[in-house]
Design a protein that fits this description.
single chain, alpha/beta, Metallo-beta-lactamase, Chain A, eight-stranded mixed sheet, two-stranded antiparallel ribbon, about 15% strand, Bact_Alkyl/Aryl-Sulfatase, MBL fold metallo-hydrolase, TAT_signal, Metallo-B-lactamas
Amino acid sequence: MSQSDDAAKAGSRRAFLKNVAVASAATGLSGVVGETLAQTGNVANPTGPASKPATPATIALNKQYADFLNFADVQDFEDAKRGLVATLPEPVIIKGQGEFPAWNLQQFAFVSGGPENNAPSTVNPSLWRNAKLNMNHGLYTVVDGIWQVRGYDLSVMSIIRGDHGYIVIDPFITTEVASTVWKQLVIPHLGDKPITHVIYTHSHVDHYGGVRGLVSDEDLKSGKVQIVAPVGFTEAAVGENIIAGNAMGRRASYMYGSLLPRDPVGIVDGGLGKTTSVGTITLAVPSMFAEKTGQKLTLDGVEIEV
């Protein structure tokens, strides 16, 4: 096969992937992933199997963690509150009138207390401590000119101040969460400035799904907003969330326990965040790419090294 044939095939493949991504974005990314999350996330299964108490083996193993870990160390709890600017008055984000919430931190209100070990017998003490830390939520200052919004999705959204506006990194899973956070936390406390760039750090849906809650089609088409991602991002996102969407959706349901009740015998935490938000998953195709380690990109006056 000639080099020209190879180039033509590669170009056709890129065009196909872009068309799939654009079409998927218009329908909430893939119907598979969108529907799976809508059916399972934040909704306990009322007909599922009855919960069981911790077995003696579980109790014994959890006690090993309780005896080994230093629960007198409060540094994590101090760090988790540092830099807090503001929180949503109620940590509940409604999808629309009469609909179930896209996000509801209040359903985890049973997770409470300080750094001391008061874990139920069904929960590993380390996980219970992490679950307490993940109850913190709001807009936080990291350093001057860099902020994060935490506690409203599985992932964290970061914001960098540029010369003319904001650079957003990883805009959550759903548009409902991204839009609410921007309107109710970012604009009131940081100022109403345009978004110039959105960075996807990688192809997992919790790092790009909420993008169209922040930017419009017009701004994307005009180039007013640039989408920055690792090279190969679109192919990876399509492969993971559309071609393998059914399997990934089921995997996510098991991994995050989304069908379990929110209680000490169900789901208490998702590890890196409380759980996944539920709502509209979208995608904006990248217009700029990080191609190699050490590459330098200047985005709205901010130099970023890959």
